[in-house]
Structures are given as C-alpha cells and as structure tokens.
Design goal:
mainly alpha; rod-shaped; 240 residues
C-alpha cells in the first residue's frame, strides 16, 4: 500500500493528464455526435420547408386557374340572367354561356411535405412562428376552404340531376382540353324566361360564385401567398 502511495505521489501529474485527455475525448465525441445529429436535423428541416414551398407554389397556380374559371362562370351567369329577364333573343353563343353556369371545379392540392413533418414530429421545424403558420394554413385554412368547396359542389350536382333534365339536350359538354368550354343547348329557350325555378338557381349561383371567389378563394390565396413569403425568408435564414 505504501508503494502505491509513493507511485501515485510521483506520477500523479501523468495520471491527471491522462484523465483530462480521456474526459476531453469523451466530451469531444459527444459534441461531434450532437453536431452531426443537429446537421442532419437541419438538413431534414430545410428539405421539408422546401417541399412545402414547392407544393404551395403549385397550389397557388391551381387557385389562380380556378378563380379565373369561376369568374368566367360568373360573367356567363350575369349575361344569361340579363338576357332572360329582359326578353332577349336566343343566339348560338348563348349555348357557350349556358355550359359555363355550374362548374365542377375541385381544388387539387398537395399536403405531403407537411404530413411528412407531422409524421416526424412538428418540432423538426425549429422556428415556432413558421410552425404555427404552417399548421394554420394546412390544418385550418385548407380544411375550412374544402368544406366550402364541398357545399359548392353539392349545388353543382343538384343542378345536374334536378335542374338540367327537361330543360337542355345534355349538360357539361366540355370539348376543349383542360377547360370548361363547350355548348349546352336549351330545349325551349323562350320557356326559360318564365321558368322561376331555373331563374332562381342561376341567380343564386351567381351570388354563390361571387362569394366563393371573393371570400373562400381570396382568403385561401392570401394565406398561401403569405406562407410562401414566410418560407422564403426562413429558408434564406437557414441556408445562411
């Protein structure tokens, strides 16, 4: 035992140095592992946010396209209401406008990148403000819009099944690719002028289309545009 104390007394600086080196080595390995993990996490975060941005850009293009089509529909509805209520004559171009009265427009969108973030845990998005805004867009704004779209499409289906039969030769005669252009010919144009049920539906649809575009679609568009801007700023910060 005495020999051990003598050895320790003589070599304690050497042993202390070895202990310090060992501790530093362990700490360094731990920090290196943390650095690698944080780097991978940052890479995954950037990948998810870039995916969200790409999908939102595609959604924005879809929104603008659908709003354009719905505005065409509203112009056709207003024209037909004016002709029918003011005893206007029938001309072949009206068949085009009749075909644009009720459009089966769906908002085709993607949420795959956001769903990936949810599956990995939303805390992978380090910026709490960006995280909250993404949740607001996808889990609130999109769902609210889709509920409104569901109600709109239910009216379109009702129109197809209950209003068109007996009044037109056929409905939804879309000929041109990727558009709703075509012709819908009335069986008796003159009788439509006194057809209160038909007039009620197209007047109501003109009002609904106005509301759908100016409220549902405009709010959705503003949210998507704002989110894209926020993602641009956040990706720039993360890449710096």
């Amino acid at each position: 035992m005495k020999r051990i104390f003598i050895v320790l007394k003589e070599k304690w600086p050497e042993y202390l140095f070895e202990i310090i080196v060992l501790v530093i080595g362990i700490y360094g390995a731990f920090e290196l592992a943390n650095y690698g993990e944080n780097r991978n996490r940052r890479r995954s975060e950037i990948e998810i946010l870039k995916g969200c941005r790409t999908e939102l850009m595609a959604d924005l293009a879809e929104i603008n396209h659908n709003m354009g089509e719905l505005n065409k529909s509203r112009r056709s509805l207003k024209l037909l209401i004016d002709v029918l209520e003011n005893n206007g004559p029938y001309h072949d171009s009206l068949a085009f406008h009749f075909n644009y009265t009720f459009l089966p427009i769906h908002f085709v969108h993607s949420t795959s990148s956001f769903e990936t973030a949810k599956s990995r845990g939303l805390d992978i998005i380090s910026n709490s403000e960006i995280r909250s805004k993404l949740i607001a867009v996808y889990d609130s704004q999109y769902k609210f819009f889709l509920k409104g779209e569901e109600e709109e499409l239910a009216e379109v289906q009702h129109y197809l099944r209950n209003i068109l039969p007996g009044r037109f030769a056929s409905g939804w005669n879309y000929g041109a690719k990727d558009t709703f252009e075509g012709e819908m010919v009335p069986l008796d144009f003159e009788s439509l002028k006194a057809d209160q049920e038909f007039l009620f539906f197209i007047k109501t649809q003109e009002n609904r289309t106005k509301s759908f575009v100016e409220y549902f679609y405009e709010n959705l568009k503003n949210s998507v545009e704002s989110m894209i801007g926020d993602l641009d700023s956040e990706l720039k910060r993360l890449d710096s």
